[in-house]
Structures are given as structure tokens and as C-alpha cells.
Write a structure and sequence with these properties.
The chain has one domain: Beta-galactosidase, Chain A, domain 5 (Distorted Sandwich). About 5% of the residues lie in helices and about 40% in strands. The strands form 3 sheets. Strands 6-7-8-9-21-18-17-12-15 form a 9-stranded antiparallel β-sheet, covered by helices on one side. Strands 5, 10, 11, 13, 14, 16, 19 and 20 form an 8-stranded antiparallel β-sheet that branches. Strand 1 and strand 2 form a beta hairpin. Bound molecules: 6-O-phosphono-beta-D-tagatofuranose. The site of 6-O-phosphono-beta-D-tagatofuranose has 11 residues, from strand 19 and strand 20.
Length: about 325
């Protein structure tokens, strides 16, 4: 069970003009990162979860369900962190416990080589509680840096270190369960995953090979693309917007839309909200990551939103994927 309240940070850690700590009742404390014009990112301490990413017009780029509920249940939308497992295996809750715990502001993060021009960022940290250790008997430090770039791009960098003192390695699976806001799922295409092998969660995780052109959506999709390229493009035709998803340290990519039947079955999801969202989730699913004591893994998610123009007839996705 998650602790009742977040760890309130000493004010000196939050002295940046690009960062605001907002206390809220019910464990909903959050950090707001502010960039140029109306660019911003909101992160809830509960779950270390990004719940908003706005562009310089103040438009929301991530999907959050209107029926999302409060702690201690995971929040439907934004970018939930799936750790130490993706999916449901053994006695851990679906997608692991990291998204259901209060993270703390990391007051002493080890140096992370980043672009010095990026001023709007926050470092969070999660360590296992006694209860967590009963469920998953491994000590770890999970450091998460969330950064808003000068151009409005968003990056999440996870560093997970095995701090076991008993010499035991541990293995885990992981995903940045990213919910993108789209105008109309039937007008959306995904480029970059053509011809890739995938495990189909709707067909008993059987392995298939994707067709040779862009992925379109006409029904529920729940696929884990294996050894996917480091860049994937989500083209929203109506919005004339392309999301570019880049990943490092994460071989796989999960693509999910629940469609109508499953949407109706989810309490924290509006019946027709499937039309306005798509999950593309950089992940490590097929091959768990194993760390020996003292070893650290780094996994990075990069998101940008660029205008898509079709007047030229030139497919922007090809530019953003191979440019
Ligand atoms: O990422 C796809 C998936 O594994 C789907 O199978 C579906 O369960 C989705 O995650 C949502 O999971 P959640 O536990 O957040 O309801």
C-alpha cells in the first residue's frame, strides 16, 4: 500500500525559476516545469508520473482520462512508469509497483551528462519500502530525471541501480507507458514499426511479423514490437501533428489502443475516449534487464511534437525518422 503522503522537499532544492512545487491534498503534490511561452510539464510525486506536457500554444499533448482516479490507484494517462515488471506475472501488481508509490525529490543525484541549455528539469528517486521488499526482495535506487527542452521537447531518463548487499543480481521488465492525445484514432498512423516482429497480446502473445506499411487503427491493438527502431513516428492527420518518439536502452515498443469494448470495461476510462488516445511505449519486455549488485541501467525516452504538412506530398514521417 502506498504511503499516505508524499515526502515534502526542503525548499532549497526547488529554487529554480523553471520549477514550481505545488502541494495538494490527497497526496496529489506535483512539480511543474515551465519552458518558453506556454510550454510546461507536470509531474505527480505519486508514481513519479508525468501527467501533462503542453506545447508553446498551451495545447495538451498527452492523454489523461476524464475518469482518472486518485491514489492509491494508478492514474490513467500521462506517462506511467512500469517497473519492476511490465504486464502481470507472479505476485506483483499489473505493471509493477513504481507507479503506485510516492517518489521523492532527489536531493543529491549523481551527475547526469545532459545539455547544459536545459534548465527546466527535476530529479526524483524511488527506493523500495519494507512492504515492497516483501513482494520483490531486491534493493534498488531508481532515479528519474524529467526535463523540458528549450524547444518544448520532453525527456525522461531512468537510472536503476542494484543496491543488493547480498550479492544477488535482479532482473526486471520496464516500460514508459506513454498515452498520446490524438484527434481521432481512425486518422492516426504509426511509422517506423513496419516489418517488425511483434508479440500479439490479443492472440496469446504469439509472434507475428508486421505488414510492410504504416500501422493504422480499426480495432483493439495490444502488441509488443521486438527490437524496434530507436525512432517511431505517430502521425495525427487531423491535427497535422507528428509525435516523434525516441528511445535508448529500451529495445521494444508496445502499441495499445483498447477500442470500444475494453474502453467500456475500464472504470477509469470514458467509453469513447479510445478515439482520442494511443499508447506507444518504449519498453524492455521480451528480454528482461539483469543487473548485478552495483550495476546501473539507463533508459531514456525522448518526445517531440512537430507539424506535419502533406501539401508537399513529402511524407514528414520519413523525414523525422531518417532525418
Ligand atoms: O500497455 C498495454 C497494456 O499492457 C494493455 O494490455 C492494458 O492492460 C494496458 O497496458 C493498461 O494497463 P493498466 O494496468 O494501466 O490498466
Amino acid at each position: 500500500m502506498a504511503a499516505a503522503t508524499p515526502h515534502s522537499p526542503p525548499p532549497q532544492q526547488l529554487s529554480s525559476p523553471f520549477l514550481e512545487y505545488i502541494r495538494a491534498p490527497g497526496g496529489l503534490d506535483k512539480v511543474v516545469l515551465r519552458g518558453r511561452r506556454s510550454c510546461s510539464v507536470e509531474i505527480r510525486l505519486f508514481g513519479g508520473q508525468v501527467t501533462s506536457w503542453k506545447n508553446d500554444h498551451g495545447e495538451e499533448l498527452l492523454f489523461v482520462s476524464s475518469k482518472a482516479i486518485k491514489p492509491p490507484k494508478p492514474f490513467r494517462g500521462g506517462i506511467p512508469i512500469c517497473f519492476p515488471q511490465f504486464g502481470t506475472q507472479g505476485n506483483l501488481e499489473q505493471h509493477g509497483f513504481a507507479r503506485n508509490r510516492f517518489w521523492a525529490i532527489d536531493d543529491n543525484p549523481p551527475p547526469l551528462p545532459v545539455n547544459p541549455a536545459i534548465k527546466a528539469f527535476v530529479d526524483l528517486i524511488l527506493k523500495p519500502s519494507e512492504d515492497d521488499l516483501k513482494m520483490w526482495p531486491h534493493s534498488f535506487e531508481f532515479r528519474l530525471r524529467i526535463a523540458l527542452g528549450a524547444g518544448g521537447d520532453l525527456s525522461l531518463t531512468s537510472r536503476i541501480r542494484n543496491t543488493n548487499t547480498d550479492g544477488r543480481p535482479f532482473s526486471y521488465t520496464f516500460a514508459y507507458h506513454t498515452y498520446f492525445s490524438v484527434s481521432d484514432i481512425s486518422e492516426v498512423r504509426v511509422e517506423g514499426l513496419e516489418t517488425m516482429d511483434y508479440l500479439d497480446n490479443m492472440k496469446g502473445k504469439e509472434r507475428f511479423t508486421e505488414q510492410g506499411d504504416a500501422i493504422v487503427f480499426e480495432s483493439e491493438v495490444d502488441k509488443v514490437y521486438l527490437a524496434a527502431p530507436s525512432k517511431v513516428a505517430i502521425i495525427d492527420h487531423d491535427m497535422r501533428r507528428t509525435f516523434v518518439v525516441t528511445k535508448e536502452g529500451l529495445p521494444d515498443a508496445v502499441v495499445w489502443n483498447p477500442w470500444d469494448k475494453k474502453a467500456k470495461a475500464m472504470q477509469d476510462f470514458g467509453d469513447s475516449e479510445y478515439k482520442h488516445m494511443l499508447c506507444v511505449e518504449p519498453a524492455a519486455v521480451e528480454k528482461p534487464i539483469t543487473l548485478k549488485p552495483g550495476e546501473e541501467w539507463k533508459g531514456r525516452l525522448g518526445l517531440s511534437a512537430v507539424p506535419s504538412s502533406y501539401c508537399s506530398g513529402q511524407l514528414d514521417p520519413l523525414k523525422v525518422l531518417h532525418g
